[in-house]
Amino acid sequence: MTEARYVTLLEGLEVPIRLGIHPRELAGPQRVRLSVRMTVAYPDTVANDRIEEVLDYDFVREGVHAMARERVFALQETLCDAIAALCLSHERVVEVTVRSTKPDIYPDASVGCEVTRVRRG
């Protein structure tokens, strides 16, 4: 058997999150767009075309929605790190890149953050 690596993507997830440092940002949840790119390692290529063989996107999406309901974040960096930790909690994820953007801060631009984390050991 040869290890097989796949990149699993969750892109354009839009979630209302309490995120920010300014009073106008803390007045309530604001729209945040998230993209997650996970490198996932398997013992071999996916042979049987069954969900049980691969990482299910649901755990990331549901985990992000739970964070959005339960936590308040001051910084996008902290949010991205929390999502990266969630992804790396799955034993098959060896690397993750998380990008967040707040599209409603400025009328002419989105602001964002991107982090990449790699499983150690």
Share of residues in helices: 10-25%
Sequence of strands across the biggest β-sheet: 3-1-2-4-5
Element order: H for helix, E for strand? EHEHEHEE
Rg (C-alpha, Å): 16 Å
Number of domains: 1
Low-confidence stretches: none
* Name of the CATH class: Alpha Beta
Range of strand content: 35-45%
CATH homologous superfamily - what is it? GTP cyclohydrolase I, C-terminal domain/NADPH-dependent 7-cyano-7-deazaguanine reductase, N-terminal domain
Q: Give the CATH topology.
A: GTP Cyclohydrolase I, domain 2
End-to-end Cα distance, whole Å, is: 21 Å
Tally the helices: what do you get?
Answer: 3
Overall, the morphology is: elongated
Number of strands: 5
What characterizes the major β-sheet?
5 strands, mixed
